[in-house]
Amino acid sequence: MAAIPEGVKRLMREDLRELEPYDPAFRATEVNLSANENTWPVSEARLAAYQAALAGVALNRYPDPLARELRAALAERCGVAPEQVVVCNGADEGLFNLLLAFAGPGREVVVAPPTFEEYANFAALVGAPVREVWRREGDFALDEPSLLDAARTASMAILCSPNNPTGDVVRPDLVRALHDACPGIVLVDEAYVDFAGAGCSVAPLLDGCERLVVARTFSKAFSLAGARLGYFLAAPGVASALATVRQIYSVNAVSQALGLADLRAEAEVAELVRAIVAERERLAGRLRELTRELPVEVFPSQANFLLVRLPHASVVRERLASEEGVLVRDFSHAPGLAGCLRVSVGTTAEDERFLAGFARILRSELKERGQSI
Ligand SMILES: *Cc1c(COP(=O)(O)O)cnc(C)c1O
Q1: Is-contact 328 320, C-beta < 8 A?
Q2: Could you give the percent of the chain with pLDDT greater than 70?
Q3: What's this model's pTM, rounded to 2 decimal places?
Q4: Which strands, in side-by-side order, build the sheet including 185-189?
Q5: Tens digit of pLDDT for each residue in 283-306?
Q6: Distance, CA of 189 to CA of 202 (rounded, Å)
């Protein structure tokens, strides 16, 4: 995107003038392990179900603004009432809507970086001040006492579990404590929860935590990132507040139909998730083998990505893309993430290609700079 010229900036809301258009530095590449999508092939049967679902969509008609069928199916999946489910055009839209409804000028949002950057970005869009409670350097552990302290005066506290990009999960009892401490909304973003161990979701806490909101998406475990479909779980009253500020037709009929089809393919999704989790452990194991020879640190992850720390991370990432056609995400310039790259877990073939290129390029960088390996 082009930079915003001064003349245009003067026309903009003052507090938005210094923001920049989002650029994830995507590029055409053969193996894209940069966005945590599900890269495993879906079955013929599932593709056929997509086709059948699409054939039933009346494109000349508006979609059901309440997405009743999809919400009923999601409610059943999650063990909540349909009134507790709000669908959105990707979890991103839901996040924005939640901040729009509950945060804003003078209404502070507490986040625990390094974490998903959209929380702070969306807070800026709605004019909400952000209070950062940084994770511990070294292992990214949450600073629990400071978090609880900050939450006491916040309009919203946001945790991501498993956290993007560090991969760790939050304990449900900390979420309960946060909910007790915070007078406002407590959001737990569970975009990657399907890849985490049983019992990691905080959705069971919805019963009894009136201001808890849980965010989910079809973009990661489900293979529908392109369809833009997410959903939020909350107490009925909070769900209604969220529904009040949403664009009524933001979830189109095609996405609603595809989401329903995928919920009916839940057994296949579960099988793919198991395969991806096994592949994550295999990839982590292979990376840890490298650490005997190369200065690479591999962080434990309960998501479908791994965070690694290495010298010359940016150069290695750049060379991986240009020489090997493998794209990973560069966080090495992000605060708290010096030297870090995030690698999505791909198929075994994709991951092997990444590993081969990664080890070769890192070795060559170290050698070139005269650093012993
Ligand atoms: C990918 C991601 C989302 C957004 O998912 P969409 O449904 O594709 O908008 C939300 N939160 C986190 C932490 C993510 O990594």
Answers
A1: yes
A2: 99
A3: 0.96
A4: 85-88, 230-234, 212-217, 185-189, 156-160, 109-111, 130-132
A5: 999 999 999 999 999 999 999 999
A6: 10
- Ligand 1 site, residue 94, Cβ cutoff 6 A: no
- Name all domains of the chain by residue range, CATH numbers in brackets: 6-40+267-368 (3.90.1150.10), 44-265 (3.40.640.10)
301 lines ligand 1 (CB under 6 A): no
pLDDT recorded at residue 373? 56
Q: What is the pLDDT of residues 105-159, one digit of tens each?
A: 999 999 999 999 999 999 999 999 999 999 999 999 999 999 999 999 999 999 9
Q: Which two tokens stand for residue 153?
A: 């005066």
Q: Where are the alpha helices (DSSP H) in 110-219?
A: 118-125, 144-151, 172-181
Distance from residue 179's CA to the centre of ligand 1 (Å): 22
List all residues 6 or more positions away from 168 whose beta carbon is below 8 Å from its beta carbon: 140, 141, 161, 162, 299, 300, 301, 302
Check pocket membership of 189 for ligand 1, CB cut-off 6 A. Answer: yes
Task: List pLDDT tens digits, range 54-102.
Answer: 999 999 999 999 999 999 999 999 999 999 999 999 999 999 999 999 9
Burial of 352: CB neighbours in 10 Å, binned 0-12, 13-18, 19+: middle
Beta bridge partners of 230: 88, 217
Dihedral angle sign, alpha carbons of residues 62, 66, 72, 75: positive
Instruction: Quote the ligand 1 centre to 70 CA distance (angstroms).
Output: 19
Amino acid at 261: A
Dig out the tokens for 162 from the structure. 């498993």
| Residue of minimum CA distance from atom 5 in ligand 1 | 91
Give CA separation, 157 vs 33, 118, 147, 336, in Å. Answer: 30, 14, 9, 20
Q: Provide the 3-class DSSP secondary structure of residue 234.
A: strand
* Distance between Cα 217 and ligand 1 center (Å): 7
CB atoms within 10 A of CB 15: 12
